[in-house]
Amino acid sequence: MNEDRRVGKQQPPVILTIAGSDSGAGAGIQADLKAISATGGYACTVLTAVTAQNTCGVFDVFSMSSAHVAKQLDAVFTDFSVKAVKTGMLVNAEIIKTVAAKLSDYKPQWLVVDPVLASTSGKTLLEKEAINALKDILFPIANVVTPNLIEASLLVGEKEDGYTDDKISELIIRLRDLNTKAVLLKGGHSSNQEKCTDVLVLPDKLKNFSAARVVTPNSHGTGCTLSAALACYLGQGLALDIAVEKSKCYLTEALKNSASWQLGNGCGPLGHFFDR
Fold it and tell me: Pyridoxamine kinase/Phosphomethylpyrimidine kinase domain: from which residue to which, for each copy (predicted)?
């Protein structure tokens, strides 16, 4: 009976997210689980930190030990055939080194690095001395790095304001100096109020992905959601540019789906599940 049910069923790709938790479930591991499930993957998780967090901000961070992170990684990779990995909040240099070493050992086909540096409310989510470890150790083995404009500024040492078209063009030039295969520069913080344009920065070309800006109070976890969906689509065998396009479309619909929600007193979560 059980075997008959499995006949003809397509097995979902296993996608691993390595990130911190959000007790309000709008961002972090919880957002990744929703996005991966909604876009057709089976999500496994490795927890790097537990946050006290809701729609109004991040109030405390409790970090996992690097040894425990290593054990979680071994547990997943020795039992599951992982197609793609997405990293989010990595907390400190020790965890970054551990994650990079394990990924180099297990060699998943795809690695998406979302460089989570600070929360929207200003809470530091990656220790300052760990930024160099992120750039020097994890970026070189990533297939694509997905900073927003503020994170990109921090990564290249630029000032974090006034994201006009000229400022974004300057950022793109600096991003090419990073040791990465590709960067998806997310444009949500740009000064353009009509549309949001993400730029896929490749060594020899740029590709823009634009969508009308969704006016909503509920945008908590957009970066986590986009990078998780991107990892999932890559794990399904799509080319990078097609996976980016599908991920952006998914994120736009998730924003629209929660536009009328009133969950929490701050920046609310996305509606990850909708008719597609």
Answer: 22-270
